[in-house]
TrEMBL record:
<keyword id="KW-0560">Oxidoreductase</keyword>
<dbReference type="InterPro" id="IPR031717">
    <property type="entry name" value="ODO-1/KGD_C"/>
</dbReference>
<dbReference type="Pfam" id="PF16870">
    <property type="entry name" value="OxoGdeHyase_C"/>
</dbReference>
<dbReference type="GO" id="GO:0004591">
    <property type="term" value="F:oxoglutarate dehydrogenase (succinyl-transferring) activity"/>
</dbReference>
<dbReference type="InterPro" id="IPR005475">
    <property type="entry name" value="Transketolase-like_Pyr-bd"/>
</dbReference>
<dbReference type="GO" id="GO:0006099">
    <property type="term" value="P:tricarboxylic acid cycle"/>
</dbReference>
<dbReference type="Pfam" id="PF00676">
    <property type="entry name" value="E1_dh"/>
</dbReference>
<dbReference type="GO" id="GO:0005829">
    <property type="term" value="C:cytosol"/>
</dbReference>
<dbReference type="InterPro" id="IPR029061">
    <property type="entry name" value="THDP-binding"/>
</dbReference>
<dbReference type="Pfam" id="PF02779">
    <property type="entry name" value="Transket_pyr"/>
</dbReference>
<feature type="domain" description="Transketolase-like pyrimidine-binding">
    <location>
        <begin position="592"/>
        <end position="785"/>
    </location>
</feature>
<dbReference type="InterPro" id="IPR001017">
    <property type="entry name" value="DH_E1"/>
</dbReference>
<dbReference type="GO" id="GO:0030976">
    <property type="term" value="F:thiamine pyrophosphate binding"/>
</dbReference>
<comment type="similarity">
    <text>Belongs to the alpha-ketoglutarate dehydrogenase family.</text>
</comment>
<dbReference type="InterPro" id="IPR042179">
    <property type="entry name" value="KGD_C_sf"/>
</dbReference>
<dbReference type="InterPro" id="IPR032106">
    <property type="entry name" value="2-oxogl_dehyd_N"/>
</dbReference>
<keyword id="KW-0786">Thiamine pyrophosphate</keyword>
């Protein structure tokens, strides 16, 4: 280092002395990627004096590595001149440049449309090297060639083969040195070229023949029909089969895949083993099930077994609506359920594969959310293989500046430091190598990895589109471009791996399978029994014919255990008061409040040996400071969960404070429950209106998944709801939206008003064998309302009452008005009626709004057949809440010749007012209106 630079270095006291090793490591990270160090360090390093006449900093580690290598060779004398020393460093910088930027000059686009400038860093001249240096030997540092030194000419060729061929590898953004070294070894040791036997090459060709053959067959047999062809991305088929085969060989027992519509039919037939004759029937409009709505062909899921050298692997392709990327968290939730059931916390036994579109992966926020979940405790699955079918067109948009801001569609993956392997879809052998590396990386490091399959779309968005209208230049090339099958068949014939007549035989054989309607996947096997059995949950309708009661003695025992924690565990004073009160509730000194009843429900479930999983943004404590299932030691921050200490051999209990997301977390939990019917799975919104952000999951999965796809789901959703003057955004869980989605007994919508009700409602969701979603308008102020309390005896009945009649001892014959209501407003009505001594007004609570309890309400109204005035009272504005969606049920329930009126807020664009004084005035008015006789 020149004297002036050294002086400046030494004058910066914190950059030398005992800190020097740490500073050097920081500085080298800065050289690799300036964003890898803090802004403060970036400023310091950027201000360091530069060596006159030099554009690039020398890396100390490279120089150290060279001297360490030389030191191991005591018998070899090497005299290095100043010039050769400089060139040695330049060679190491050249290697680093290819690792960082080689992908930018890789041969990735089959159509040759990508206009990419030559990267200056990859040119010899940029490093003061030239072809005159090709015959000189240089130390290659960590370059995985198996040699310590190489001639520059051989090294340069190896670097271009490795990083600028059909695979463009992005991995230098990873901070883990061991992961980078692992990837370098896998790529550089073979120069990114697969070594394959003739049998393996034949398998690849068979995959391409199948991909191409099915599309052409469907195009000829059903011209003009939508199928969202895979053509152009044909290499996806051999890629998926390689992933499954290799995963099975490594011990994986299940593979769960999710994808949108592009190429889905091809995957169903040529990977999953769906019988093509069934697909042809679907194209012809034939179907067996007339009791459901069904769904279009390219949304359908499928399950099968696939034989591998390591045994059979169970395959599941998730059903998916047209909301493209929303299936990703559903898939990963399903995988987590399967891993939990197998007691596998590393992810070895179940592999998730998500298949994305290039515009969708860059454009849809749920992708970012799902990446963010990948290493979070409650959601991790040991890494996901993420495949991008990059056909360079999003619907009709192909310009990069219209679809994303980054260079690649896969930039989002860098947020979790996932390696990204871009690969040319017309080079299937490179695709297979990238696939092998990706899976092995996932299995080794338990992290996400991305394969960007750069290909094209031979037809329009669907087969009825005319793509040349919007992409004229691209489709001039596409029309002339040979198919991947044709290109690879010619390659194998030219190199002598397969004779042309043999290739023709393989093609004819696949066509014969389609003509005969036979399975086209030789690895397909009929499904055998797997780790979950849905049989006990099938064929059950809405009835109470199940063993629901729980003994009072058992409840008392559970309540004591639930209220006990080690004396050494010092809890917050407010939490201690709550637990002291809970012990009094357990011993009968106090009635149970909401938090105690809810936790007691969980205790009773795990005591049965069933699992409980609760996820939400503040679920451990509870948003409104009521649950406290997790006790935090105030001295050392350790935690204790009483619900994990109910008894030996109990069911597992997990409560997870989730990532700050609604849509991805709810989709994850939906996926979990569709793969795990036993136990109780809950998603809790921090405030009920936050469910707005997850509306697509409610609309396209939870409310309609059973009718469209026959997928049962027992997910419970707790949505805090109630008007306490907290403004438009923290009042309403949008009850009306869920009621609007209700039909065909597809889900339950409940508004429990007592602790006993919530206890029995949650238990019912597990004990009753039927599995359907449960939407709960859960309370806020009722958590501590003095009237919202229950006894252990009320809970021991196991009865959830869909309707609760009048609780005060009113003379039913004197009643002139009956008020129907749900939720918190009941207590305001009750207190006002008692205060005003209105003994001629009865109040009836509807605790389950759907399925509507016709018989239960009829039984309650039997004593009020003489009443003429019936009222529905709600807190929500008239155009919201239950009024519009449920009034036909109320009218049908009341005696003939009577009338029903509405008491509540006027219709409003906003769910609630933002001023407390206005809220109080409105609330008082609707209560008064409901109780006042006409």
């Amino acid at each position: 280092m020149p004297e002036g630079v050294m002086k400046a270095w030494l004058e910066s006291s914190h950059l030398n002395g005992g800190n020097i090793v740490y500073i050097e490591e920081l500085y080298e990270s800065y050289l690799d990627n300036s964003a890898s160090v803090s802004a403060e360090w970036q400023e310091i390093f950027s201000q360091l004096p530069k060596v006159e006449g030099s554009e690039v900093e020398y890396r100390h580690s490279a120089i150290r590595d060279e001297f360490r290598t030389l030191a191991k060779q005591p018998n070899k004398q090497v005299i290095v001149s100043s010039s050769s020393d400089t060139k040695q460093v330049k060679v190491l910088q050249l290697i680093n440049a290819f690792r960082f930027r080689g992908h930018q000059n890789a041969n990735l686009d089959p159509l040759g449309l990508w206009q990419r400038d030559q990267v200056r860093d990859l040119q010899l001249s940029h490093h003061d090297l030239s072809e005159n240096d090709f015959d000189k030997e240089y130390n290659v540092g960590s370059f995985a060639s198996g040699q310590e030194t190489m001639k520059l000419g051989d090294l340069y060729k190896a670097l271009r083969n490795t990083y600028c061929g059909s695979i463009g590898a992005e991995y230098m953004h990873i901070t883990s040195t061991s992961e980078k070294r692992w990837l370098q070894q896998r790529l550089e040791s073979v120069q990114s070229k697969a070594t394959l036997s003739v049998e393996e090459k034949t398998d690849i060709l068979n995959g391409l023949i199948a991909a191409d053959g099915l599309e052409k067959y469907l195009g000829a047999k059903f011209p003009g029909a939508k199928r969202f062809s895979l053509e152009g991305g044909d290499a996806l088929i051999p890629m998926l089969k390689e992933l499954i085969t290799r995963a099975g060989s490594a011990g994986t027992k299940e593979v769960v895949m999710g994808m949108a519509h592009r190429g889905r039919l091809n995957v169903l037939v040529n990977v999953m083993g769906k019988n093509p004759s069934k697909l042809f029937d679907e194209f012809a409009g034939k179907h067996d099930d007339v009791h459901s709505s069904g769904d279009v062909k390219y949304h359908q899921g499928y399950s099968s077994d696939f034989v591998t050298p390591g045994g059979n692997v169970h395959l599941a392709l998730a059903f998916n609506p047209s909301h493209l990327e929303i299936v990703n968290p559903v898939v990963i939730g399903s995988v987590r359920a399967r891993l939990d059931r197998r007691n596998c916390d590393r992810g070895d036994l179940v592999l998730p594969i998500t298949i994305h579109g290039d515009s969708a992966i860059a454009g849809q926020g749920v992708v970012q959310e799902t990446f963010n979940m990948s290493q979070v405790k409650a959601f991790k699955v040991g890494g996901t293989i993420r495949v991008v079918v990059n056909n360079q067109v999003g619907f009709t948009t192909s310009k990069q500046e219209d679809t994303r801001s980054g260079e690649y569609c896969t930039e989002i993956a860098k947020m979790v430091q996932a390696p990204i392997l871009h690969v040319n879809g017309d080079d299937p052998e490179a695709v297979i190598l990238a696939t092998q590396i990706a899976l092995d990386y996932r299995n080794e490091f338990k992290r996400d990895v991305v394969i960007d399959l750069v290909c094209y779309r031979r037809h329009g968005h669907n087969e009825a589109d005319e793509p040349s209208a919007t992409q004229p230049l691209m489709y001039k090339i596409v029309k002339k471009h040979p198919t991947p099958r044709q290109l690879y068949a010619d390659k194998l014939a030219t190199e002598g791996s397969l004779a042309k007549d043999k290739i023709a035989d393989l093609t004819a054989y696949y066509r014969k399978l389609l003509d005969e309607g036979q399975c086209t996947v030789k690895q397909w096997r009929p499904m055998t029994a797997h780790s979950v059995d849905w049989t006990p949950y099938l064929g059950h309708e809405w009835n109470d014919d199940y063993d629901k009661a729980i003994s009072l003695e058992k409840l008392e025992e559970l309540a004591v255990k639930l209220s006990t924690y080690p004396e050494s565990h010092t809890v917050h004073s407010r939490v201690k008061k709550i637990y002291d009160d809970r012990m009094k509730m357990a011993t009968g000194e106090k009635l149970l409040d909401w938090g105690m009843a809810e936790n007691l429900a969980y205790a009773s479930i795990v005591d049965r040996g069933e699992r409980v999983r609760i996820t939400g943004q503040d679920s451990g404590r509870g948003t409104f400071f009521h649950r406290h299932a997790v006790l935090h030691n105030q001295k050392d921050g350790s935690t204790y969960l009483p619900l994990q200490h109910i008894r030996e051999g109990q069911g597992p209990f997990a409560v997870n404070d989730s990532v700050l997301s609604e849509v991805s977390v709810l989709a994850f939990e939906y996926g979990y429950t569709t793969a795990e019917p036993a136990g109780l799975t809950i998603w809790e919104a921090q405030f009920g209106d936050f469910a707005n952000c997850a509306q697509v999951v409610f609309d396209q999965f939870i409310s309609s998944g059973e009718q469209k796809w026959g997928r049962l789901c027992g997910l419970t959703m707790l949505l805090p709801h109630g008007y306490e003057g907290q403004g438009p955004e923290h009042s309403s869980a949008r009850l009306e939206r869920f009621l609007q989605l209700c039909a065909d007994h597809n889900m339950q919508v409940c508004v429990p008003s007592t602790p006993a009700q919530v206890f029995n409602m949650l238990r019912r969701q597990v004990v009753r064998p039927m599995r359907r979603p449960l939407v709960v308008m859960s309370p806020k102020s009722l958590l501590r309302h003095p009237l919202a309390v229950s006894s252990l005896e009320e809970m021991s009945t196991g009865e959830f009452y869909s309707v609760i009649g009048e609780v005060d001892e009113l003379d039913s014959k004197a009643v002139e008005r009956v008020v129907f209501c749900s939720g918190k407003v009941y207590y305001e009505l009750l207190e006002q009626r008692r205060k005003n001594e209105l003994n001629n007004v009865a109040i009836v609570r509807i605790e389950q709004l759907y399925p509507f309890p016709e018989q239960e309400l009829a039984a309650v109204l039997e004593q009020y057949q003489h009443v003429k005035q019936f009222v529905w009272c709600q807190e929500e504005p008239q155009n919201q809440g239950a009024w519009y969606c449920s009034q036909h049920n109320f009218r049908a329930a009341i005696p003939k010749g009577t009338y029903l009126t509405y008491a509540g807020r006027n219709a409003s664009a906003a769910p609630a007012v933002g001023y407390m004084s206005v809220h109080v005035k409105e609330q008082q008015a609707l209560v008064t209106q409901a109780l006042t006789l006409d």
